[in-house]
Amino acid sequence: MEYSQLTQDVNTALKELLEVARLKKGQIVVVGCSTSEVAGEKIGTHSSPEIAAALMEGIYPLLKEKSLYLAVQCCEHLNRALVVEEECMEKYGLEQVSVYPIQGAGGSLGNKAMKTLEKPVVVENIQAHAGIDIGDTFIGMHLKPVAVPIRSSVKKIGEAHLTTARTRPKLIGGERARYHE
Length: 181
What we know:
The chain is of the alpha+beta class.
């Protein structure tokens, strides 16, 4: 597996998402990832710290540069809890839980996030403003209610299916409502 290609592909997909989503500083991007799927294996069967490191290299520096928060979704064994910066938890009033994601329970990317973020904590829920799902890990539960799929030029990361999404405010008021002045 060519790790530098994984880094480049996820970075390209993230740049395309950020261009369309037009996020404001301090907003949240959730990333769900099965490193097993990236390697061409069944989700949850071949977790890879090396793949996680390559992906984090393509994600985290760009989000830091844009002053956006990263939320890394853990695997189902941790009920899809998320690794975030302590500052993000405090800003958004999130509730911290007591767990430390490891390769076999939390996922390789969750474990890598614990080692990479400045002051990582794990929270149970979040409502992110945009997201990347690598390997069909179902990040929708962690996006704001109105998610809009974004079609990326990158269709796969390694062997894993890629989906990206932004969110928008709900449209309310019915047929007489106006949404723009």
